[in-house]
Amino acid sequence: MGTISRSPATLRWARAFAPLCLVLGAQNIGAQGLISPTDSSGISSPQSQPPRSGLMPGRPMAPAVSPDITEARELISNRKWSEAEQLIESRLAKRPRDPQWRFLQGVLFAETGRQPEAISVFELLTEDFPELSESYNNLAALYVEQRELNKARLLLERAVQNRPDYALAHENLGDIFTQLAIQSYEKAAKSNQPAPSVKLKLDHLLKTPAIRTSRVTTNR
Prior knowledge:
This protein is mainly alpha-helical. It contains 9 helices and no strands. Helices cover 54% and strands 0% of the residues. The termini are far apart.
């Protein structure tokens, strides 16, 4: 049986935009809160992460969002790339380790097709702030665009290990497993004597609307 051509799975993308929750401790980093106008997931802080025992703490109150962060998010949302880049670079010149501005820089690079630069930004964020699940999610989305599904899977597994209540990463991980299943069923269908169940399973997955129409979004 021939394979059905389609685009690789694409993931929902964490774009730090609306007013919740990268609270990394103002005394150390000076971070304000970020999340998306279209997604309820925020960049959460070490304080908002569940403890390693798996017990969930209460949700923190949303911190205030600084005017310059709001401005940068609006510039990206309105596709004013040059102005957004100038603002982000000016803030990073003053606070080069600030995770919010670095995160926004990664989002900007990804939005403007500069995938290698975006990957580099998010890789460094996962190294410097390994507790921030959103960086793993975005890095996974970029790897999916390069058809690196197993790399993306490992990153998403780390994201949900850090933050078991991160619904966006759980959804993306489910999409990854679905695409890996499709690949396996396609290989099985090409064998000399595929079981009848293989075609039924493959057809079922390929007819799923969410699989056919999924695309990258973010809680930027």
